[in-house]
Amino acid sequence: MVSTWKVRQIEAMNEGALENVVVTVCFAIDGDEDGLKGYVESDVKLLPPDAANFTKLADATEEQVIGWTKAALGDNGVAQFESMLQAQIDAQKVAQPKVVPLPWAPVEEESEEAA
C-alpha cells in the first residue's frame, strides 16, 4: 500500500520567547493499493519545541510538519493509522452481495416512450 500524508490545518501559539509555535496538527492520510482507496483523518498535539532547533512557522514545510506529526504519534501511532488504512482497503477486497432480480418476478420492459 502506498500512503500519502497531508497536513490539513495547524494551530500555533506563542510559547515563551518563541512565536507561532505549532502545537496541533490536523492531518489526513490517503492509502492506495491496486486502485483500492482508504482515508484516515485525525489530529495530534505536538511535542514541545526545542528552542535550539526551532523552525519559524514561515519557514516550515509540509514535509517537516509531517515529520513532527509522526514524531508526536510515535512508531506505534503511525503504524496504527497505517493499519486503519490497510483495513479499509482489505475490506474492499471482500466480495459484497448485490441486489439481483427475483427469478419469478416478471421483467418490466422499457416502453419506447420512456426511451
What do these coordinates show?
The protein is α+β, with helices and mostly antiparallel strands and 115 residues long. It has one domain (2-93). It is 28% helix and 35% strand. It has one helix spanning 62-93; strands at residues 2-15, 18-33, 36-45.
- Which stretches are low in confidence, meaning pLDDT under 50 for 5 or more residues running? none
Give the rounded overall mean pLDDT.
93
SS class: alpha+beta
Seen as an oligomer or otherwise, the chain set is: single chain
Number of E strands? 3
Provide the spatial order of strands within the biggest beta sheet.
1-2-3
Shape: elongated
Domain count: the total is 1
Total helical elements: 1
Order of helices and strands: EEEH
The biggest beta sheet reads: 3 strands, antiparallel
Beta strand %: 25-35%
DSSP helix fraction: 25-40%
Measured between the Cα atoms of the first and last residue, the distance is 44 Å
Radius of gyration of CA atoms, rounded to a whole number:
24 Å
List keywords for this structure.
single chain, 115 residues, three-stranded antiparallel sheet, alpha+beta
Secondary-structure map with pairings?
Layout: E1 2-15, E2 18-33, E3 36-45, H1 62-93
Antiparallel strand pairs: 1-2, 2-3
Quick overview:
It is built from 1 helix and 3 strands; from the N terminus they run E-E-E-H. It is an alpha+beta fold. The protein has one domain (2-93).
